[in-house]
Amino acid sequence: MKTIPRLALASSLIFLIQNSLAESLPEIIVSATRTAQTVNDTLSSVTVFTAEDIQQQHASSLQELLQARAGFQLVNNGGAGKITSLFLRGTESDHILMMIDGIKINSSSTGTPPLELIPLEMIERVEIVRGPRASLYGPDAIGGVIQIFTKKGHAGDTIKPTLSLTTGSHNTQGVTAGVLGGAGNASYSFTLKKEKTDGYNACTGSSTAFAGCFTEEPDKDAYDNQSISVNLGYQFNNTRLSGQFLGSDNNIEFDGAAPFASNESQSLLQSYGITLSSELTDHSNFLLSVGRSANKNKNLQSGVFFSRFNTERDSLSLQGNIDITEDHLLTVGVDYLEDEARTTSYGKVSRDNIGLFAEYQADIHNHNVNIGLRKDDNQQFGNKTTGNIAIGHLINQNMKFITSYATAFKAPTFNELFFPFFGNTELSPEESYTIEIGLRGKQDWGTWSGSLYRTKIDNLIVYDANAMLANNIDKAKIKGVEFIAETRIQAWQFNANLTLLDTEDQSKGFNNGNELARRPRKSLHLNIDREFPRFSIGSTLVSESERFDDSGNNRRIGGYATTTLRASYKLMKGLSIRAKVGNLFDKHYETTSFYPQDGRNFRLTLQYAP
Questions:
Q1: 22 CB contacts (<8 Å, ≥6 apart)?
Q2: Can you tell me the distance from the alpha carbon of 262 to that of 176, in angstroms, rounded to the nearest whole number?
Q3: DSSP secondary structure code for residue 254 in this structure
Q4: β-pair partners for 372
Q5: What are 257-303's pLDDT values in tens digits?
Q6: Taking a C-beta distance cutoff of 8 angstroms, is the pair 338, 313 a contact?
Q7: Residue 208 backbone zone (phi > 0: left; psi -120 to 50: alpha; other: beta)
Q8: Overall average pLDDT of the 463-478 stretch
Q9: Three-state secondary structure call for residue 75
Q10: How many CB atoms lie within 10 A of CB 469?
Q11: d(CA 249, CA 69)
Protein backbone atom coordinates (compact mmCIF):
# COMPACT_ATOMS: atom_id res chain seq x y z
CA MET A 1 0.00 0.00 0.00
CA LYS A 2 1.11 3.58 -0.54
CA THR A 3 1.28 4.72 3.04
CA ILE A 4 3.51 2.08 4.63
CA PRO A 5 6.35 0.82 2.44
CA ARG A 6 7.27 -2.86 2.46
CA LEU A 7 4.33 -3.99 4.58
CA ALA A 8 5.83 -3.37 8.02
CA LEU A 9 3.38 -5.20 10.24
CA ALA A 10 4.84 -7.03 13.20
CA SER A 11 4.82 -5.22 16.52
CA SER A 12 8.63 -5.24 16.67
CA LEU A 13 8.82 -3.63 13.21
CA ILE A 14 6.16 -1.12 14.14
CA PHE A 15 8.31 0.24 16.94
CA LEU A 16 11.35 0.39 14.69
CA ILE A 17 9.35 2.40 12.16
CA GLN A 18 8.05 4.74 14.85
CA ASN A 19 11.53 5.44 16.18
CA SER A 20 13.27 5.93 12.85
CA LEU A 21 10.53 7.80 10.97
CA ALA A 22 8.67 9.58 13.74
CA GLU A 23 9.20 12.96 12.13
CA SER A 24 7.95 11.96 8.66
CA LEU A 25 5.19 9.41 9.27
CA PRO A 26 1.84 9.92 10.96
CA GLU A 27 0.71 7.57 13.71
CA ILE A 28 0.60 3.88 12.76
CA ILE A 29 -1.80 1.13 13.81
CA VAL A 30 -1.45 -2.59 13.14
CA SER A 31 -4.48 -4.13 14.93
CA ALA A 32 -7.23 -2.96 12.57
CA THR A 33 -6.09 -5.06 9.58
CA ARG A 34 -3.12 -7.08 10.97
CA THR A 35 -0.94 -4.93 8.69
CA ALA A 36 0.56 -1.54 9.33
CA GLN A 37 -1.34 1.53 8.16
CA THR A 38 -1.72 5.09 9.33
CA VAL A 39 -4.54 5.96 11.69
CA ASN A 40 -5.92 8.36 9.09
CA ASP A 41 -6.03 5.67 6.41
CA THR A 42 -7.70 2.92 8.43
CA LEU A 43 -11.40 2.31 7.74
CA SER A 44 -12.04 1.24 11.34
CA SER A 45 -12.87 3.41 14.36
CA VAL A 46 -9.59 3.38 16.28
CA THR A 47 -7.73 5.00 19.16
CA VAL A 48 -4.00 4.72 19.83
CA PHE A 49 -2.13 5.50 23.06
CA THR A 50 1.63 5.95 23.03
CA ALA A 51 3.89 5.88 26.08
CA GLU A 52 3.81 9.69 26.08
CA ASP A 53 -0.02 9.68 26.09
CA ILE A 54 -0.09 7.22 28.99
CA GLN A 55 2.31 9.34 31.04
CA GLN A 56 0.40 12.53 30.27
CA GLN A 57 -2.85 11.01 31.59
CA HIS A 58 -1.21 9.98 34.93
CA ALA A 59 -3.48 6.92 34.91
CA SER A 60 -2.88 4.47 37.76
CA SER A 61 -4.34 1.44 35.94
CA LEU A 62 -5.22 0.20 32.48
CA GLN A 63 -8.95 0.42 33.22
CA GLU A 64 -8.60 4.07 34.23
CA LEU A 65 -6.80 4.78 30.96
CA LEU A 66 -9.53 3.11 28.90
CA GLN A 67 -12.52 4.42 30.85
CA ALA A 68 -12.39 7.90 29.35
CA ARG A 69 -12.28 6.67 25.73
CA ALA A 70 -15.11 6.67 23.22
CA GLY A 71 -17.47 3.71 23.37
CA PHE A 72 -16.28 2.29 26.71
CA GLN A 73 -18.27 1.81 29.90
CA LEU A 74 -16.46 0.43 32.93
CA VAL A 75 -17.81 -1.84 35.68
CA ASN A 76 -15.58 -2.38 38.73
CA ASN A 77 -16.21 -4.53 41.82
CA GLY A 78 -14.79 -2.23 44.47
CA GLY A 79 -11.30 -0.90 43.82
CA ALA A 80 -7.80 -1.79 42.67
CA GLY A 81 -7.29 -5.39 41.51
CA LYS A 82 -10.98 -6.27 41.80
CA ILE A 83 -12.85 -7.83 38.88
CA THR A 84 -13.28 -5.15 36.21
CA SER A 85 -15.37 -5.39 33.05
CA LEU A 86 -15.43 -3.14 30.01
CA PHE A 87 -18.46 -2.83 27.75
CA LEU A 88 -17.56 -1.60 24.28
CA ARG A 89 -20.30 -0.07 22.12
CA GLY A 90 -22.95 -1.86 24.15
CA THR A 91 -21.59 -5.37 23.62
CA GLU A 92 -20.82 -7.75 26.49
CA SER A 93 -17.66 -7.56 28.58
CA ASP A 94 -16.48 -10.85 27.05
CA HIS A 95 -16.98 -9.53 23.50
CA ILE A 96 -13.66 -7.64 23.57
CA LEU A 97 -10.61 -9.54 22.37
CA MET A 98 -7.49 -8.48 24.24
CA MET A 99 -3.95 -9.31 23.15
CA ILE A 100 -0.50 -8.66 24.59
CA ASP A 101 2.12 -8.45 21.84
CA GLY A 102 -0.17 -10.52 19.59
CA ILE A 103 -0.98 -13.19 22.22
CA LYS A 104 -4.69 -13.62 23.04
CA ILE A 105 -5.23 -13.41 26.82
CA ASN A 106 -9.01 -13.65 27.33
CA SER A 107 -9.81 -16.19 30.06
CA SER A 108 -11.12 -19.56 28.84
CA SER A 109 -13.37 -19.79 31.90
CA THR A 110 -14.92 -16.30 32.03
CA GLY A 111 -14.19 -15.13 28.48
CA THR A 112 -13.23 -11.67 29.75
CA PRO A 113 -9.77 -10.10 29.53
CA PRO A 114 -8.08 -9.76 32.97
CA LEU A 115 -7.36 -6.08 32.45
CA GLU A 116 -7.35 -5.36 36.21
CA LEU A 117 -4.19 -7.53 36.49
CA ILE A 118 -2.17 -5.88 33.69
CA PRO A 119 0.36 -3.36 35.08
CA LEU A 120 0.25 -0.07 33.21
CA GLU A 121 3.96 0.52 33.83
CA MET A 122 4.85 -2.35 31.46
CA ILE A 123 2.94 -0.86 28.51
CA GLU A 124 4.54 1.02 25.62
CA ARG A 125 1.48 1.31 23.43
CA VAL A 126 -2.25 0.49 23.34
CA GLU A 127 -4.31 0.09 20.16
CA ILE A 128 -8.12 0.06 20.31
CA VAL A 129 -10.33 -1.03 17.42
CA ARG A 130 -14.05 -0.42 17.92
CA GLY A 131 -16.35 -2.79 16.03
CA PRO A 132 -16.20 -6.48 15.01
CA ARG A 133 -12.84 -7.96 13.98
CA ALA A 134 -13.87 -11.65 13.95
CA SER A 135 -13.03 -12.02 10.25
CA LEU A 136 -9.40 -11.31 11.19
CA TYR A 137 -9.06 -12.71 14.71
CA GLY A 138 -11.84 -15.28 15.07
CA PRO A 139 -14.09 -15.68 18.14
CA ASP A 140 -14.27 -13.09 20.98
CA ALA A 141 -14.07 -9.96 18.78
CA ILE A 142 -17.80 -9.07 18.53
CA GLY A 143 -17.32 -5.65 20.15
CA GLY A 144 -13.75 -4.86 19.24
CA VAL A 145 -10.05 -5.47 19.89
CA ILE A 146 -7.58 -4.06 22.40
CA GLN A 147 -3.94 -4.85 21.68
CA ILE A 148 -1.23 -4.02 24.21
CA PHE A 149 2.43 -3.70 23.24
CA THR A 150 4.88 -3.99 26.12
CA LYS A 151 8.01 -1.87 26.41
CA LYS A 152 10.79 -2.74 23.97
CA GLY A 153 14.34 -1.69 23.35
CA HIS A 154 15.74 -1.00 19.90
CA ALA A 155 18.97 -2.06 18.25
CA GLY A 156 21.60 0.63 18.53
CA ASP A 157 19.97 2.39 21.49
CA THR A 158 22.05 3.36 24.50
CA ILE A 159 21.09 1.97 27.90
CA LYS A 160 18.04 3.78 29.31
CA PRO A 161 17.29 3.06 32.99
CA THR A 162 14.06 4.18 34.66
CA LEU A 163 12.93 4.28 38.27
CA SER A 164 9.71 5.53 39.82
CA LEU A 165 8.42 5.67 43.39
CA THR A 166 4.69 6.05 44.11
CA THR A 167 2.62 6.81 47.18
CA GLY A 168 -1.09 7.51 47.51
CA SER A 169 -4.41 7.10 49.29
CA HIS A 170 -5.24 3.94 51.26
CA ASN A 171 -1.55 3.52 52.13
CA THR A 172 -0.65 2.85 48.51
CA GLN A 173 3.08 2.28 47.99
CA GLY A 174 4.81 1.27 44.78
CA VAL A 175 8.16 1.04 43.02
CA THR A 176 8.95 0.39 39.34
CA ALA A 177 12.41 -0.12 37.85
CA GLY A 178 13.43 -0.89 34.31
CA VAL A 179 16.15 -0.79 31.71
CA LEU A 180 16.02 -0.96 27.92
CA GLY A 181 18.42 -0.56 25.05
CA GLY A 182 20.33 -2.38 22.37
CA ALA A 183 23.72 -3.82 21.50
CA GLY A 184 24.59 -4.34 17.84
CA ASN A 185 21.63 -6.09 16.22
CA ALA A 186 20.15 -7.09 19.58
CA SER A 187 17.60 -5.24 21.70
CA TYR A 188 16.34 -5.76 25.23
CA SER A 189 13.92 -4.45 27.83
CA PHE A 190 13.38 -5.46 31.48
CA THR A 191 10.79 -3.93 33.82
CA LEU A 192 9.96 -4.83 37.43
CA LYS A 193 7.11 -3.48 39.53
CA LYS A 194 5.83 -3.93 43.07
CA GLU A 195 2.80 -2.11 44.47
CA LYS A 196 0.43 -2.61 47.38
CA THR A 197 -2.58 -0.81 48.82
CA ASP A 198 -4.77 -1.31 51.89
CA GLY A 199 -7.82 -0.57 49.72
CA TYR A 200 -11.26 0.17 51.10
CA ASN A 201 -14.43 -1.85 51.77
CA ALA A 202 -15.16 -3.36 48.36
CA CYS A 203 -18.80 -4.34 48.98
CA THR A 204 -21.52 -2.90 51.18
CA GLY A 205 -23.36 -6.25 51.37
CA SER A 206 -26.74 -7.25 50.03
CA SER A 207 -29.73 -9.37 50.94
CA THR A 208 -31.01 -9.01 47.36
CA ALA A 209 -30.91 -12.23 45.36
CA PHE A 210 -28.25 -12.40 42.63
CA ALA A 211 -26.68 -9.06 43.54
CA GLY A 212 -23.78 -7.88 45.63
CA CYS A 213 -21.62 -10.14 47.78
CA PHE A 214 -24.38 -11.60 50.05
CA THR A 215 -22.49 -10.69 53.22
CA GLU A 216 -21.42 -7.82 55.48
CA GLU A 217 -17.63 -7.60 55.82
CA PRO A 218 -16.95 -3.94 56.72
CA ASP A 219 -13.17 -4.27 56.40
CA LYS A 220 -10.56 -2.90 54.04
CA ASP A 221 -9.92 -5.13 51.04
CA ALA A 222 -6.23 -4.96 50.23
CA TYR A 223 -4.42 -5.61 46.97
CA ASP A 224 -0.77 -6.17 46.15
CA ASN A 225 0.94 -6.82 42.85
CA GLN A 226 4.38 -7.96 41.68
CA SER A 227 5.05 -7.84 37.94
CA ILE A 228 7.83 -8.45 35.46
CA SER A 229 8.11 -7.78 31.74
CA VAL A 230 10.95 -8.99 29.49
CA ASN A 231 11.41 -8.33 25.76
CA LEU A 232 14.36 -9.57 23.68
CA GLY A 233 14.93 -9.15 19.95
CA TYR A 234 17.54 -9.72 17.25
CA GLN A 235 17.67 -8.49 13.66
CA PHE A 236 19.08 -10.80 10.95
CA ASN A 237 19.21 -8.71 7.75
CA ASN A 238 15.52 -8.76 6.64
CA THR A 239 14.41 -11.11 9.42
CA ARG A 240 13.63 -10.29 13.05
CA LEU A 241 13.26 -12.74 15.93
CA SER A 242 11.74 -11.50 19.17
CA GLY A 243 10.45 -12.95 22.41
CA GLN A 244 8.36 -11.49 25.20
CA PHE A 245 7.21 -12.44 28.69
CA LEU A 246 4.83 -10.66 31.05
CA GLY A 247 4.01 -11.99 34.50
CA SER A 248 1.68 -10.44 37.05
CA ASP A 249 1.38 -12.03 40.51
CA ASN A 250 -1.52 -10.67 42.58
CA ASN A 251 -3.08 -11.07 46.03
CA ILE A 252 -6.61 -9.70 46.09
CA GLU A 253 -8.98 -9.36 49.05
CA PHE A 254 -12.73 -8.89 48.55
CA ASP A 255 -16.01 -9.75 50.28
CA GLY A 256 -17.67 -13.15 49.99
CA ALA A 257 -20.23 -15.07 52.04
CA ALA A 258 -18.85 -18.17 53.78
CA PRO A 259 -19.20 -21.06 53.18
CA PHE A 260 -20.58 -20.37 49.69
CA ALA A 261 -17.91 -18.04 48.31
CA SER A 262 -14.28 -17.05 48.74
CA ASN A 263 -13.03 -13.67 49.94
CA GLU A 264 -9.40 -13.80 48.80
CA SER A 265 -7.65 -14.72 45.57
CA GLN A 266 -4.06 -15.46 44.62
CA SER A 267 -4.02 -14.75 40.91
CA LEU A 268 -1.16 -15.23 38.46
CA LEU A 269 -1.33 -13.87 34.90
CA GLN A 270 1.33 -14.92 32.39
CA SER A 271 1.76 -14.17 28.69
CA TYR A 272 4.75 -15.26 26.66
CA GLY A 273 5.51 -15.75 23.01
CA ILE A 274 8.04 -15.82 20.18
CA THR A 275 7.62 -13.93 16.91
CA LEU A 276 9.54 -14.36 13.66
CA SER A 277 8.97 -11.80 10.90
CA SER A 278 10.75 -11.63 7.58
CA GLU A 279 10.67 -9.84 4.24
CA LEU A 280 10.81 -12.55 1.59
CA THR A 281 10.95 -10.10 -1.32
CA ASP A 282 10.35 -6.40 -1.90
CA HIS A 283 6.65 -7.25 -2.30
CA SER A 284 5.98 -10.01 0.25
CA ASN A 285 6.66 -10.94 3.86
CA PHE A 286 5.45 -13.31 6.54
CA LEU A 287 4.88 -13.35 10.28
CA LEU A 288 5.01 -16.45 12.51
CA SER A 289 3.89 -16.16 16.11
CA VAL A 290 3.70 -18.82 18.85
CA GLY A 291 2.52 -18.07 22.37
CA ARG A 292 0.71 -19.01 25.53
CA SER A 293 -1.34 -17.07 28.06
CA ALA A 294 -2.20 -18.49 31.46
CA ASN A 295 -4.43 -17.29 34.26
CA LYS A 296 -4.06 -19.24 37.51
CA ASN A 297 -6.38 -18.48 40.42
CA LYS A 298 -6.29 -19.98 43.90
CA ASN A 299 -9.29 -18.80 45.90
CA LEU A 300 -9.53 -18.83 49.69
CA GLN A 301 -12.10 -18.11 52.36
CA SER A 302 -10.46 -16.43 55.37
CA GLY A 303 -7.15 -18.13 54.56
CA VAL A 304 -8.60 -21.61 53.93
CA PHE A 305 -8.48 -23.13 50.42
CA PHE A 306 -11.80 -22.78 48.61
CA SER A 307 -11.34 -23.41 44.88
CA ARG A 308 -8.92 -23.34 41.98
CA PHE A 309 -9.36 -22.04 38.42
CA ASN A 310 -6.41 -22.48 36.04
CA THR A 311 -6.83 -21.65 32.36
CA GLU A 312 -4.40 -21.69 29.45
CA ARG A 313 -4.58 -20.54 25.82
CA ASP A 314 -1.98 -21.86 23.38
CA SER A 315 -1.84 -20.07 20.06
CA LEU A 316 0.00 -20.30 16.75
CA SER A 317 -0.41 -17.89 13.85
CA LEU A 318 1.14 -17.82 10.38
CA GLN A 319 0.42 -14.80 8.20
CA GLY A 320 1.61 -13.81 4.75
CA ASN A 321 1.30 -10.45 3.00
CA ILE A 322 1.64 -9.84 -0.73
CA ASP A 323 1.75 -6.50 -2.52
CA ILE A 324 -0.16 -7.35 -5.67
CA THR A 325 0.56 -3.82 -6.89
CA GLU A 326 1.45 -0.62 -5.09
CA ASP A 327 -2.24 -0.05 -4.27
CA HIS A 328 -3.44 -3.62 -3.69
CA LEU A 329 -2.49 -5.74 -0.67
CA LEU A 330 -3.53 -9.33 0.04
CA THR A 331 -3.16 -10.88 3.51
CA VAL A 332 -3.73 -14.60 4.10
CA GLY A 333 -3.13 -16.74 7.15
CA VAL A 334 -4.04 -19.49 9.56
CA ASP A 335 -4.60 -19.30 13.33
CA TYR A 336 -4.63 -22.16 15.81
CA LEU A 337 -5.98 -21.73 19.34
CA GLU A 338 -6.38 -24.30 22.12
CA ASP A 339 -8.24 -23.48 25.33
CA GLU A 340 -7.88 -25.53 28.48
CA ALA A 341 -9.30 -25.13 31.98
CA ARG A 342 -8.62 -27.08 35.17
CA THR A 343 -10.92 -26.27 38.06
CA THR A 344 -12.23 -27.73 41.28
CA SER A 345 -15.77 -27.12 39.98
CA TYR A 346 -15.82 -29.14 36.77
CA GLY A 347 -12.45 -30.86 36.40
CA LYS A 348 -10.53 -30.47 33.14
CA VAL A 349 -12.01 -29.36 29.83
CA SER A 350 -10.39 -28.28 26.57
CA ARG A 351 -11.18 -27.43 22.95
CA ASP A 352 -9.36 -26.07 19.94
CA ASN A 353 -10.18 -23.70 17.10
CA ILE A 354 -8.57 -23.48 13.66
CA GLY A 355 -9.19 -20.40 11.52
CA LEU A 356 -8.30 -19.61 7.91
CA PHE A 357 -8.50 -15.94 6.93
CA ALA A 358 -7.90 -13.60 4.01
CA GLU A 359 -8.02 -9.80 3.82
CA TYR A 360 -7.85 -7.66 0.66
CA GLN A 361 -7.06 -3.94 0.80
CA ALA A 362 -7.10 -1.58 -2.15
CA ASP A 363 -6.76 2.12 -2.95
CA ILE A 364 -8.81 2.92 -6.06
CA HIS A 365 -8.81 6.61 -7.00
CA ASN A 366 -10.61 8.35 -4.10
CA HIS A 367 -11.81 5.08 -2.58
CA ASN A 368 -10.35 2.64 -0.04
CA VAL A 369 -11.70 -0.91 0.13
CA ASN A 370 -11.22 -3.63 2.75
CA ILE A 371 -12.75 -7.08 2.24
CA GLY A 372 -12.18 -9.94 4.68
CA LEU A 373 -13.34 -13.53 5.02
CA ARG A 374 -12.61 -16.14 7.66
CA LYS A 375 -13.66 -19.72 8.35
CA ASP A 376 -13.28 -21.12 11.86
CA ASP A 377 -13.53 -24.79 12.80
CA ASN A 378 -14.41 -24.95 16.49
CA GLN A 379 -13.94 -28.41 18.00
CA GLN A 380 -17.09 -28.08 20.09
CA PHE A 381 -19.42 -26.02 17.88
CA GLY A 382 -18.32 -26.78 14.32
CA ASN A 383 -17.71 -24.44 11.38
CA LYS A 384 -18.45 -20.71 11.46
CA THR A 385 -17.84 -18.23 8.63
CA THR A 386 -17.45 -14.50 9.25
CA GLY A 387 -16.72 -11.59 6.95
CA ASN A 388 -16.35 -7.86 6.64
CA ILE A 389 -16.44 -5.20 3.97
CA ALA A 390 -15.55 -1.54 4.42
CA ILE A 391 -15.49 1.26 1.87
CA GLY A 392 -14.00 4.70 2.36
CA HIS A 393 -14.65 7.64 0.06
CA LEU A 394 -12.40 10.69 0.16
CA ILE A 395 -14.80 13.62 -0.18
CA ASN A 396 -11.90 16.07 -0.24
CA GLN A 397 -8.42 16.28 1.25
CA ASN A 398 -9.87 16.94 4.70
CA MET A 399 -12.93 14.70 4.88
CA LYS A 400 -13.67 10.99 4.44
CA PHE A 401 -16.93 9.03 4.43
CA ILE A 402 -16.80 5.38 5.58
CA THR A 403 -19.35 2.58 5.60
CA SER A 404 -18.86 -1.00 6.75
CA TYR A 405 -20.60 -4.30 7.42
CA ALA A 406 -19.14 -7.12 9.55
CA THR A 407 -20.25 -10.38 11.12
CA ALA A 408 -18.86 -12.12 14.20
CA PHE A 409 -19.46 -15.07 16.51
CA LYS A 410 -18.43 -16.21 19.98
CA ALA A 411 -18.54 -19.69 21.49
CA PRO A 412 -19.85 -20.03 25.07
CA THR A 413 -17.15 -19.91 27.73
CA PHE A 414 -16.39 -22.86 29.97
CA ASN A 415 -18.08 -21.09 32.90
CA GLU A 416 -21.21 -20.50 30.82
CA LEU A 417 -21.26 -24.18 29.94
CA PHE A 418 -20.18 -25.94 33.13
CA PHE A 419 -20.06 -23.70 36.23
CA PRO A 420 -22.25 -25.18 39.03
CA PHE A 421 -25.67 -23.51 39.41
CA PHE A 422 -24.90 -21.25 36.44
CA GLY A 423 -23.61 -23.22 33.45
CA ASN A 424 -25.86 -24.60 30.71
CA THR A 425 -24.48 -27.22 28.31
CA GLU A 426 -27.34 -26.50 25.87
CA LEU A 427 -26.06 -23.03 25.01
CA SER A 428 -25.55 -22.02 21.38
CA PRO A 429 -22.77 -19.70 20.12
CA GLU A 430 -23.52 -15.99 19.89
CA GLU A 431 -23.65 -14.56 16.37
CA SER A 432 -23.77 -10.91 15.32
CA TYR A 433 -23.71 -8.46 12.48
CA THR A 434 -22.83 -4.77 12.63
CA ILE A 435 -23.51 -1.94 10.19
CA GLU A 436 -21.57 1.30 10.64
CA ILE A 437 -21.38 4.59 8.77
CA GLY A 438 -18.97 7.33 9.70
CA LEU A 439 -17.55 10.67 8.74
CA ARG A 440 -14.18 12.00 9.81
CA GLY A 441 -12.37 15.22 9.07
CA LYS A 442 -9.38 17.42 9.73
CA GLN A 443 -9.80 21.16 9.90
CA ASP A 444 -7.52 24.06 10.84
CA TRP A 445 -8.90 23.91 14.38
CA GLY A 446 -8.39 20.14 14.87
CA THR A 447 -9.76 16.68 14.04
CA TRP A 448 -13.21 15.15 14.45
CA SER A 449 -15.19 12.00 13.67
CA GLY A 450 -18.75 10.78 13.96
CA SER A 451 -20.09 7.22 13.71
CA LEU A 452 -23.52 5.60 13.69
CA TYR A 453 -23.63 1.85 14.28
CA ARG A 454 -26.23 -0.86 14.66
CA THR A 455 -25.46 -4.33 16.03
CA LYS A 456 -27.78 -7.33 16.15
CA ILE A 457 -26.78 -10.29 18.32
CA ASP A 458 -28.51 -13.65 18.03
CA ASN A 459 -28.34 -16.06 20.98
CA LEU A 460 -26.84 -13.47 23.33
CA ILE A 461 -25.79 -15.27 26.53
CA VAL A 462 -27.03 -13.68 29.77
CA TYR A 463 -27.93 -14.86 33.25
CA ASP A 464 -31.57 -15.95 33.26
CA ALA A 465 -32.99 -15.35 36.75
CA ASN A 466 -36.10 -17.37 35.93
CA ALA A 467 -34.14 -20.48 34.89
CA MET A 468 -31.37 -19.65 37.44
CA LEU A 469 -28.62 -20.36 34.90
CA ALA A 470 -26.98 -18.93 31.79
CA ASN A 471 -29.27 -18.86 28.79
CA ASN A 472 -29.47 -17.64 25.21
CA ILE A 473 -31.86 -14.81 24.43
CA ASP A 474 -33.21 -14.85 20.90
CA LYS A 475 -32.08 -11.42 19.79
CA ALA A 476 -30.56 -8.26 21.18
CA LYS A 477 -30.31 -4.92 19.40
CA ILE A 478 -27.73 -2.19 19.97
CA LYS A 479 -27.83 1.23 18.31
CA GLY A 480 -25.23 3.87 18.96
CA VAL A 481 -23.93 7.29 18.00
CA GLU A 482 -20.33 8.27 18.68
CA PHE A 483 -18.67 11.68 18.39
CA ILE A 484 -14.97 12.41 18.90
CA ALA A 485 -13.23 15.79 18.61
CA GLU A 486 -9.76 17.06 19.35
CA THR A 487 -8.58 20.66 19.18
CA ARG A 488 -6.02 23.08 20.53
CA ILE A 489 -7.04 26.50 21.80
CA GLN A 490 -3.94 28.59 22.33
CA ALA A 491 -1.78 26.21 24.42
CA TRP A 492 -4.66 24.09 25.74
CA GLN A 493 -5.30 20.64 24.25
CA PHE A 494 -8.94 19.42 24.31
CA ASN A 495 -10.08 15.86 23.58
CA ALA A 496 -13.78 15.03 23.95
CA ASN A 497 -16.04 12.11 23.08
CA LEU A 498 -19.76 11.48 23.43
CA THR A 499 -21.56 8.14 23.14
CA LEU A 500 -25.34 7.78 22.88
CA LEU A 501 -26.53 4.19 23.25
CA ASP A 502 -29.86 2.43 22.81
CA THR A 503 -30.00 -1.29 23.72
CA GLU A 504 -32.96 -3.66 23.69
CA ASP A 505 -33.59 -7.25 24.70
CA GLN A 506 -35.71 -8.62 21.83
CA SER A 507 -36.24 -12.08 23.27
CA LYS A 508 -39.66 -13.66 23.59
CA GLY A 509 -39.45 -13.98 27.37
CA PHE A 510 -40.22 -11.80 30.37
CA ASN A 511 -37.49 -9.29 29.54
CA ASN A 512 -38.68 -8.43 26.04
CA GLY A 513 -38.17 -4.73 25.42
CA ASN A 514 -35.85 -4.22 28.41
CA GLU A 515 -32.51 -2.46 28.22
CA LEU A 516 -29.40 -4.62 28.38
CA ALA A 517 -27.81 -4.52 31.83
CA ARG A 518 -25.07 -2.06 32.82
CA ARG A 519 -25.12 0.04 29.65
CA PRO A 520 -25.62 3.78 30.29
CA ARG A 521 -27.55 5.57 27.56
CA LYS A 522 -25.20 8.58 27.61
CA SER A 523 -21.46 8.82 28.21
CA LEU A 524 -19.40 12.00 27.99
CA HIS A 525 -15.62 12.11 28.46
CA LEU A 526 -13.45 15.22 28.31
CA ASN A 527 -9.65 15.57 28.62
CA ILE A 528 -7.94 18.96 28.94
CA ASP A 529 -4.16 19.38 29.09
CA ARG A 530 -1.57 22.12 28.86
CA GLU A 531 2.21 21.91 28.62
CA PHE A 532 4.59 24.56 29.99
CA PRO A 533 8.39 24.46 29.65
CA ARG A 534 8.84 22.53 32.93
CA PHE A 535 5.28 22.13 34.13
CA SER A 536 2.07 20.51 32.87
CA ILE A 537 -1.50 20.41 34.14
CA GLY A 538 -4.60 18.54 33.04
CA SER A 539 -8.05 17.30 33.95
CA THR A 540 -10.39 14.47 32.97
CA LEU A 541 -14.18 14.51 33.27
CA VAL A 542 -16.09 11.23 33.13
CA SER A 543 -19.87 11.49 33.07
CA GLU A 544 -22.32 8.61 32.58
CA SER A 545 -26.10 8.44 32.86
CA GLU A 546 -28.04 5.92 34.92
CA ARG A 547 -28.33 2.28 33.86
CA PHE A 548 -29.92 -0.96 35.04
CA ASP A 549 -27.87 -3.57 36.90
CA ASP A 550 -29.93 -6.60 35.85
CA SER A 551 -31.62 -7.99 32.75
CA GLY A 552 -35.02 -7.64 34.41
CA ASN A 553 -34.45 -3.87 34.78
CA ASN A 554 -35.40 -4.01 38.46
CA ARG A 555 -32.24 -2.50 39.99
CA ARG A 556 -31.33 0.97 38.82
CA ILE A 557 -27.81 2.42 39.20
CA GLY A 558 -27.64 6.20 39.33
CA GLY A 559 -25.64 8.31 36.92
CA TYR A 560 -22.47 10.05 38.02
CA ALA A 561 -19.77 12.53 37.04
CA THR A 562 -16.21 12.57 38.34
CA THR A 563 -13.32 14.96 37.83
CA THR A 564 -9.61 14.16 37.96
CA LEU A 565 -6.88 16.80 38.27
CA ARG A 566 -3.24 16.08 37.40
CA ALA A 567 0.02 18.00 37.31
CA SER A 568 3.70 17.31 36.74
CA TYR A 569 6.91 19.23 37.25
CA LYS A 570 10.43 18.62 35.87
CA LEU A 571 12.78 19.00 38.82
CA MET A 572 15.84 18.57 36.59
CA LYS A 573 16.80 16.74 33.42
CA GLY A 574 15.41 13.21 33.68
CA LEU A 575 13.78 13.75 37.09
CA SER A 576 10.10 14.70 37.45
CA ILE A 577 7.31 14.58 39.97
CA ARG A 578 3.68 13.84 39.09
CA ALA A 579 0.58 14.38 41.23
CA LYS A 580 -3.05 13.40 40.68
CA VAL A 581 -6.28 13.89 42.61
CA GLY A 582 -9.05 11.51 41.55
CA ASN A 583 -12.77 12.00 42.15
CA LEU A 584 -12.04 15.59 43.15
CA PHE A 585 -15.55 16.34 44.46
CA ASP A 586 -15.77 13.05 46.41
CA LYS A 587 -18.73 11.70 44.45
CA HIS A 588 -20.33 8.58 45.98
CA TYR A 589 -21.27 6.26 43.15
CA GLU A 590 -21.35 2.66 41.92
CA THR A 591 -20.87 1.01 38.54
CA THR A 592 -22.51 -2.19 39.78
CA SER A 593 -24.90 -2.51 42.71
CA PHE A 594 -23.39 -2.65 46.20
CA TYR A 595 -19.78 -2.18 45.01
CA PRO A 596 -18.76 1.43 45.79
CA GLN A 597 -16.10 3.26 43.81
CA ASP A 598 -13.29 5.15 45.47
CA GLY A 599 -13.97 8.57 46.93
CA ARG A 600 -11.55 11.47 46.71
CA ASN A 601 -8.06 10.01 46.34
CA PHE A 602 -4.54 11.11 45.51
CA ARG A 603 -1.41 9.66 43.93
CA LEU A 604 2.14 11.07 43.93
CA THR A 605 4.98 9.70 41.76
CA LEU A 606 8.65 10.59 41.60
CA GLN A 607 10.18 9.41 38.30
CA TYR A 608 13.75 9.19 37.08
CA ALA A 609 13.98 8.64 33.29
CA PRO A 610 17.14 10.14 31.79
A1: none
A2: 31
A3: -
A4: 359, 388
A5: 888 899 999 999 999 999 999 999 989 999 999 999 999 999 999 99
A6: yes
A7: beta
A8: 88
A9: strand
A10: 17
A11: 27
